[in-house]
Q: What sequence folds into this?
């Protein structure tokens, strides 16, 4: 097994608020291997964004707090680095793409200048012409037409899809080893989504960067990811490679997520959402956080009292955090047979 | 933010093909289970949310109490003031504060404390009257302009633009000097006629954006008339800024009236006004109590109103940046 | 960009005309231009009729306005109806003095206010922040005339007690001293302080709010994610954007300062345009009052124009409005 690019161990992140302490991330552990695309799936509030932003020091530290854990990036623990040292990684070896392209660029500065800033921050000795040439090149790679002219334009002159491409260009400017994409297509129209995903695939192919793709859209996961983590209420509830997760999910929440997708190929009367609400992260249910909404639990006391650990199920690399995961073996997944149109 | 918008989702639709049927325990995955697990979210009206947010704002609460005391004293001036405000005592002129005259006396022996109390009454009458009148005018004009758009909106914007370009205090002084000599009510009306434009702008902006909301379209599709839409659907969502603005307008009015009276163009004696009282202090610079106390009252009142306004803004519009005092 | 500027300039002209016409109408309707003359027994009937004829006072208001407008350009604002003295020299003299005070106050207030606002926002909820927040709230609540009076009384008392003149409390100059002397500075120090304190409250508050708005935006997060040092984030991205609304505030505040000047000049007896205005108003000298309104309207409109143009420079989004 090659050395992981990123190793998260027992990460715990909390926020102090007026209403109490929010347990945003509760003891998660995972690795990211070089060149792979890891998808992190979950609802809003599951902790998927917070876990990655906290590694890069992007969450405000009051009221946030990284209570414990390690984040080893190429043998350096990012959580223990000084602010200045951590800054050298940000935008350089570890880069992030954010969700909303409409607001992620500074509206009063030229796009080219902003992209150039990403380069000059880490390579201040570079000459301006070289930087500009590189920026134009990057814009070309991500498919922005007429990049020389676009360099001098302002963000409001770019469409949403183009802005996201510019953001992607910004993130790969310094050839990062790890790319974190936080719901990069959520704010875009469906057709534009497809285009941006194409760009991401191309970028991945060219740069061979490891990518963490955070999303709630299972379709994107199926299309782009090699491995998947499913998060709920700040914990990882299932992990495995994408085929296994889709074909044989072993956690009730994962199954619920897949079931709640509308079926385009059958005639149905009702949708199948997961009943209930996501739990409050301040007062989490005792035991398994999912048990109040779980169809498998049936009120069993184990679910209500013991927090299930992520344990290996049926094979290497597939883990599920459920006391009764084995009982799900009988359940055929919707995606057990390949269905056209999932991608 | 009407009730229509803010209903929490009914907790999960339970599909006809219910899931596991438990026995005595509530069927897990249903609403009952969430209640049992102690995870139920209580549904409260938005006003009770606003109320509790306001009460948590200690500065606003404290200021509100102080304000009630001060305004109450003004309203009950006839009972609170130990002397009448025009009672002359020539044996006791320009006396420093004492147990008989808490705020001292002025140059013809009138008790400053009583005069200040009556001055507060005048100020609060002016402030509240101006705030209410200008709010009404601003609301109506802004609503019509924002909702109907077109030439009415254009006209309103030109008028507000114009008022921005005119030297405000100067125009007020001219108006006051030529039209409203001395009378408290004339001055109030003039103030109201010049102060409505800020609220009109705000209301217009709100109506303009809210009339595009989906629930307005829905109401129209259901056949609701314009007035009904404006009153029933859009107006409740604008109450927050209107209340905040109205509260702050009281402070603005009090400050401006005081300035006008100080310069001699506003309320004229014998009607007591805090501005007039401070002017008395200017002619007697050695008697610090004549300047300090009336002025301090103005500062106290305006400060408290500003804090209350801040608290109201936090309570009624929590999406705004929480600029805590 | 040029079209934007031209458009704003062209737009201001009709605004100016309508604004002055309204003021003229208002003043003429509200007050009788000849009332003061009629009331004064020194003036004969003949003088009265001459005045009426010369100023076309028997004609309708728009006609009068037209003549007055002509006078503005040709005879430099014409003559006072009361004293028959030309108005223009008074206006220029007093305006110069007022300008000195206002420019000084405004500069002080902006520099200090913006700086305090920036630090208050960066160190939100710190002692520094709470302290200056309290100061701002006080500044908002304090009537200008009261602050002016307090300062005046304070320094009069100091002089009376210790016989030392730190700042003068009335007038522009001691006899024989000039416009740019230390003596002048001592005389205008108090009015400048009064206006500066109140404006400071405005600027520090709004700058703080503006900074806080910007600091939590996505693009500032992007800047941090790029690895920029925090000071660069603050200066290059946060301040750059936060200063934009301050430009508008400055223009608006300028109008308020002209009003404040009326008050400070009255309290400190300064020969400024505000004091001039108050005196003319008390005497119901209408054409002089109109001259004041015209001049101040022009100044406000010009400053709003400058602010609009500056805004266009700073925020590329509105250039294509």
A:
């Amino acid at each position: 097994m090659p050395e992981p690019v990123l190793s998260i161990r027992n990460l715990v992140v909390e926020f102090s608020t007026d209403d109490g302490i929010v347990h945003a991330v509760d003891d998660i552990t995972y690795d990211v291997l070089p060149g792979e695309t890891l998808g992190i799936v979950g609802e809003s509030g599951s902790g998927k964004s917070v876990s990655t932003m906290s590694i890069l020091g992007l969450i405000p530290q009051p009221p946030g707090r990284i209570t414990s854990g390690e984040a080893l990036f190429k043998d350096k623990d990012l959580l223990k680095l000084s602010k200045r040292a951590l800054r050298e990684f940000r935008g350089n070896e570890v880069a992030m793409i954010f969700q909303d392209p409409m607001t992620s660029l500074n509206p009063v500065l030229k796009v080219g200048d902003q992209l150039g800033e990403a380069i000059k921050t880490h390579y201040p000795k570079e000459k301006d012409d070289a930087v500009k040439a590189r920026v134009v090149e990057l814009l070309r790679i991500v498919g922005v037409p007429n990049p020389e002219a676009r360099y001098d334009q302002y963000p409001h002159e770019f469409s949403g899809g183009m802005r996201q491409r510019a953001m992607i260009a910004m993130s790969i400017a310094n050839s990062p080893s790890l790319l974190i994409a936080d719901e990069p297509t959520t704010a875009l129209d469906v057709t534009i989504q497809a285009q941006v995903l194409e760009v991401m695939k191309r970028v991945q192919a060219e740069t061979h960067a490891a990518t963490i793709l955070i999303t709630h859209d299972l379709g994107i996961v199926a299309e782009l990811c090699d491995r998947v983590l499913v998060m709920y209420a700040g914990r990882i509830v299932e992990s495995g490679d994408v085929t296994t997760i889709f074909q044989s999910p072993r956690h009730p929440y994962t199954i619920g997520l897949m079931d709640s997708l509308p079926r385009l190929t059958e005639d149905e009367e009702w949708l199948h959402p997961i009943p209930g609400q996501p739990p409050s992260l301040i007062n989490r249910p005792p035991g398994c956080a999912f048990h109040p909404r779980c169809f498998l639990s049936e009120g069993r006391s184990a679910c209500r009292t013991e927090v299930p650990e992520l344990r290996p199920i049926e094979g290497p690399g597939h883990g599920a955090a459920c006391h009764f995961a084995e009982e799900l073996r009988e359940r055929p997944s919707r995606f057990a047979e390949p269905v056209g149109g999932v991608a | 933010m009407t009730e229509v918008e803010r209903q929490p989702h009914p907790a999960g639709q339970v599909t006809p093909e219910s899931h596991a049927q438990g026995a005595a325990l509530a069927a897990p995955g249903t609403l009952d289970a969430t209640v049992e697990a102690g995870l139920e979210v209580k549904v409260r009206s938005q006003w009770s949310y606003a109320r509790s947010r306001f009460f948590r704002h200690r500065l606003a609460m404290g200021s509100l109490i102080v304000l009630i005391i001060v305004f109450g004293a003004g309203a009950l001036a006839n009972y609170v003031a130990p002397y009448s405000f025009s009672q002359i005592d020539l044996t006791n002129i320009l006396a420093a504060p004492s147990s008989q005259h808490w705020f001292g006396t002025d140059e013809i022996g009138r008790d400053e404390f009583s005069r200040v109390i009556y001055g507060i009454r005048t100020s609060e009458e002016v402030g509240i009257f101006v705030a209410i009148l200008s709010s009404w005018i601003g609301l109506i004009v802004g609503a019509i302009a924002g909702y109907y758009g077109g030439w009415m909106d254009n006209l309103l914007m030109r008028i507000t633009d114009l008022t921005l370009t005119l030297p405000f205090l100067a125009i007020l002084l001219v108006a006051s000097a030529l039209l409203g000599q001395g009378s408290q009510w004339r001055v109030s009306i003039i103030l109201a006629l010049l102060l409505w434009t800020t609220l009109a702008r705000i209301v217009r902006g709100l109506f303009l954006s809210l009339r595009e909301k989906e629930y307005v379209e829905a109401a129209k599709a259901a056949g609701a008339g314009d007035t009904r839409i404006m009153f029933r659907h859009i107006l409740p969502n604008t109450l927050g800024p209107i209340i905040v603005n109205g509260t702050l307008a009281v402070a603005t009015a009090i400050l401006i009236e005081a300035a006008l009276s100080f310069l001699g163009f506003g309320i004229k004696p014998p009607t007591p006004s805090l501005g007039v009282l401070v002017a008395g202090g200017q002619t007697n610079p050695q008697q610090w109590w004549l300047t300090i106390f009336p002025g301090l009252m103005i500062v106290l009142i305006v400060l408290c109103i500003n804090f209350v306004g801040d608290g109201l803004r936090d309570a009624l519009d929590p999406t705004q940046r929480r600029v805590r005092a | 960009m040029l079209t934007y500027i031209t458009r704003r300039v062209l737009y201001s002209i009709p605004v100016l005309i309508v604004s002055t016409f309204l003021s003229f109408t208002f003043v003429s309707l509200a007050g009788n231009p000849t009332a003061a003359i009629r009331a004064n027994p020194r003036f004969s009937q003949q003088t009265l009729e001459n005045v009426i004829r010369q100023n076309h006072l028997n004609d309708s208001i728009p006609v009068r306005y037209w003549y007055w407008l002509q006078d503005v350009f040709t005879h430099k604002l014409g003559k006072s109806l009361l004293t028959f003295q030309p108005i223009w020299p008074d206006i220029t003299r007093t305006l110069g003095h007022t300008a000195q005070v206002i420019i000084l106050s405004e500069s002080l207030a902006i520099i200090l206010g913006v700086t305090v606002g920036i630090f208050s926002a960066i160190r939100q909820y710190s002692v520094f922040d709470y302290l200056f927040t309290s100061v701002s709230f006080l500044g908002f609540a304090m009537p200008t005339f009261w602050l002016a009076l307090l300062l005046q009384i304070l320094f009069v008392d100091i002089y009376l007690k210790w016989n030392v003149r730190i700042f003068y409390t009335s007038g522009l100059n001691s006899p024989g001293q000039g416009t740019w002397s230390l003596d002048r500075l001592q005389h205008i120090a108090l009015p400048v302080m009064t206006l500066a304190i109140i404006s400071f409250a405005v600027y520090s508050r709004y700058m703080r709010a503006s900074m806080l708005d910007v600091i939590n935006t996505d693009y500032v997060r992007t800047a941090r994610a790029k690895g920029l040092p925090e000071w660069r984030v603050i200066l290059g991205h946060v301040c750059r954007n936060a200063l934009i609304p301050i430009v508008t505030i400055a223009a608006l505040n300028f109008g308020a300062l002209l009003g404040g000047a009326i008050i400070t000049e009255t309290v400190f007896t300064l020969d400024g345009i505000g004091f001039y205005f108050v005196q003319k108003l008390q005497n119901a000298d209408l054409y002089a009052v109109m001259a004041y309104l015209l001049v101040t309207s022009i100044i406000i409109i010009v400053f709003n124009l400058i602010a609009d143009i500056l805004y266009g420079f700073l925020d590329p989004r509105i250039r294509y409005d």
User: Anything to note?
Assistant: The radius of gyration of chain A is 21 Å.
